[in-house]
Design goal:
By secondary structure, this protein is α/β, with parallel strands linked by helices. It is built from twelve helices and five strands. It folds into three domains: 126 residues, Glutaredoxin (3-Layer(aba) Sandwich); 48 residues, no CATH class; 82 residues, Serine Threonine Protein Phosphatase 5, Tetratricopeptide repeat.
Length: 286
């Protein structure tokens, strides 16, 4: 294993300004020096990933980020190792890690340096980054993938779905989103549950016949599009609602557009049919 490029050059972070005060005696993670960087991090990373944060006592944001990382390491049950680099005390190490500003986080995976982020984030966002590191590391045979954590509201929703109680599942997902508005899994779970509710009891043949008989009947088009998406037949569903967006009055157009956006959330973002439908919708609206 080799050290990253530029090891030994001076690091210039003079924009931080004031002389560094004494750092707190308790600092999360292993303090990194030129001596222990290779054995404790580069070599260690062949068995488990290591996360390193470059920080300075002159930067409260970087100190807060280090505290968050310390909490996450404690919660990880030894899945990864945390190191810290006080750039004022270890300019050579900071330079070796190509530090330009703090907080600056990198990972070591199988002896390779992987830049992570260089600005402060909330704990939830940093946890997502670390989970991604653990996933990528496990794919390379280093360490274990992150343990799956199920939120209590999600567990409640899944149990309700198992019994066909869609309304209770919907309420549970909404409760989770009220607590964690950016939870992607909760958003997807809610979208899936809502389409279960909308299609519950619908007859495929009569619903499709109604939509074909009057293509500008938005309610019929929405119901038919739901069934088609449930059957993984997304192209006709998209085309049906796009036709309404292009040709209906303002109120009906909005209903069709909103419903189409809800269906978009249920399709893989990389699906070319979705990519084209998004473009077609933008053209139809503007």
């Amino acid at each position: 294993m080799t050290l990253p490029p530029n090891f030994g050059r001076a690091v210039d972070l003079s924009s931080l300004g004031k002389p560094a005060p004494q750092a707190s005696a308790t600092v999360a993670g292993i303090s990194i020096t030129p001596t222990n960087l290779t054995p404790d991090f580069l070599e260690y990373s062949s068995t488990k990933p290591a996360i390193v944060l470059c920080w300075s006592p002159r930067s409260p944001e970087s100190m807060a980020t280090l505290e968050i990382l310390g909490e996450l390491e404690s919660e990880s049950n030894g899945a990864w190792r945390l190191g810290n680099v006080n750039i004022d005390e270890q300019p050579e190490v900071a330079s070796a890690l190509q530090t330009k500003k703090v907080p600056y986080a990198v990972a070591f995976v199988a002896g390779q340096l992987v830049p992570l982020f260089e600005q402060p984030y909330a704990k939830e966002q940093i946890a997502l980054v670390i989970n991604k590191v653990l996933e990528l590391s496990a794919q390379q045979g280093v360490g274990a993938p992150p343990a799956e954590v199920i939120e209590p509201e999600e567990e409640e929703a899944l149990k309700a779905l198992e019994t066909g109680d869609f309304k209770s599942a919907e309420a549970a997902y909404k409760k989770l989103l009220a607590r964690k508005p950016n939870d992607a899994f909760a958003k997807l779970g809610l979208a899936q549950t809502e389409i279960f509710i909308r299609t519950d009891g619908l007859n495929l043949e009569t619903t499709k016949a109604a939509a074909q008989a009057d293509p500008l009947n938005v309610l019929a088009a929405m119901a038919c599009a739901d069934i088609e998406v449930m059957s993984a037949d997304v192209q006709p569903a998209f085309d049906r609602l796009l036709h309404c967006v292009r040709n209906c009055s303002a109120d009906e157009k909005k209903k069709a557009k909103d419903h189409l956006l809800a269906l978009f959330a249920l399709v893989d973002p990389s699906d070319p049919r979705l990519i084209k439908a998004r473009s077609d919708l933008a053209n139809a609206l503007f």
